[in-house]
Amino acid sequence: MDSQVARLVDKAWDKFQQLPDGQRLLIAIGGIPGSGKTTLSQIVTTALNARHASLQPSASEPVAVFVPMDGYHLTRAQLSAMPDPALAHARRGAEFTFDGSAFLSLVQSLRIAPPPPTPVYAPSFDHAVKDPKPDDIAILPAHRVVVFEGNYVVLDKAPWREAAALMDERWFVEVGFGTARRRLVRRHVKAGIARDEGEAGKRADENDLVNGEEIVRMRGEVDEVVVSEEDGKWVHE
Fold first, then answer.
1. Is 188 part of a structural domain of the chain?
2. Would 171 be classed as within a structural domain?
3. Which of 10, 65, 106, 114 is the right S-S partner for 22, CB 3.0 to 4.6 Å?
């Protein structure tokens, strides 16, 4: 693990250790499409769970859970019901194609202390059917650290701003737009979103990176900025 990412893991662990009983640590990791925020979120979640397991080998459940924002995409049916369905489908991934209010409700429910004795459920995104899958991610009472990841989790715009204000830590993954574009082209072709690199590049230029400009321009206050480099290493600023 990169030393700077290890420092972030240490920071999160120390904050978790200082939590009053019955409270959760909520971490939001934002960034533009192709920034590497999903990778960082998964690294942090896995590292926290490994540390917890080494110190509490009898624990039956992991202490941290990863919750991507993808499950809050509006469905294709909801996009089709918009005033300009063609634009809505073409711009899927833009801020207005997400259910920010539902995401805020989830975050608010996780701020309740002590946690309810039953799981709280979040949606995931089913890439096979290209729509959210309701109640697919179980956030258990034992999950004392919740790592959120997504394009808009630190956006300075309602209702994302209100959700970000409830987080204990707000991190932003910074990346050059050229690097992000190369990653997005590879990703779109591999996932079958685009037939070839030309089509993937067009999607990146006309949607993903347009969204990225808004994400950078309207970024709210964050506690950490992590630079994602081409070689896959992480640099903290």
1. no
2. yes
3. 114
The reply to whether 198 falls in a domain is no
- Could you tell me the maximum CA-CA distance found in the chain, to the nearest angstrom? 54
Q: For the chain, what is the domain count?
A: 1
- Predicted structure pTM score: 0.94
Residue 84 placed within a domain: no
List strand residue ranges (DSSP E) for the chain, in order.
Answer: 25-31, 64-68, 120-126, 131-139, 145-150, 169-174, 224-228, 234-236
- Quick: pLDDT tens for 194-203: 889 999 999 9
CA 73/CA 124 separation, integer angstroms:
9
- The answer to whether the Cα torsion of 226, 228, 231, 232 is positive or negative is positive
What is the full DSSP assignment across 23-65? --EEEEEEE-TTSSHHHHHHHHHHHHHHHHHHH-TT-SS-SEE
